[in-house]
Amino acid sequence: MLLSYMEYYIYYLSLSQSSLKALLLQEIAEIVEQRGWGAGVSGLAFLGIGVGSLIGVSMTPIVNKNYLSQMEKHAGGKPIWPEARLPPTFIGAFLMPISLFWY
Fold it and tell me: N or C: which end of the chain has fewer CB within 10 A?
């Protein structure tokens, strides 16, 4: 069965969001209960997630610029195939398992 681009995107988002939520729930329990950290210090443990989110948001203009240049190059400014937005997700698909094993 061949899935469409949007179905792959939805599966990727659901996998990454569920992994992040499970990680956060488990991390809160570990930090507060096992290590005995207070509310202020335990908040520092989530700094990496915030930095990663900021990096992702800051990459959006670069990715959109690349997509717009492909539109101009291949379709004369008209929208092109949705898969043209796929290459940046390769970076996330490579880094996400590494970060989960690192944790």
Answer: N
Domain count, the chain: 1
Cα-based distances in Å from 21 to 15, 47, 60, 103: 10, 15, 23, 14
Q: Give Cα separations from 4 to 10, 13, 89 (angstroms).
A: 10, 14, 15
Q: Please give the residue range of the domain that contains residue 30.
A: 5-102
Enclosing H/E stretch for 80 = none
In Å, what is the CA distance from 102 to each residue of 7, 15, 70? 28, 18, 35
Which residues neighbour 2 within 8 Å (Cβ) at sequence distance 6 or greater?
A: none
Average pLDDT over residues 68-85: 78
| pLDDT confidence band for 85 (50 / 70 / 90) | confident
Count Cα neighbours of 34 within 13 Å in the Cβ-side half-sphere: 6
Cβ proximity of 103 and 22 under 8 Å: no
Distance CA 40, CA 45 (A): 10
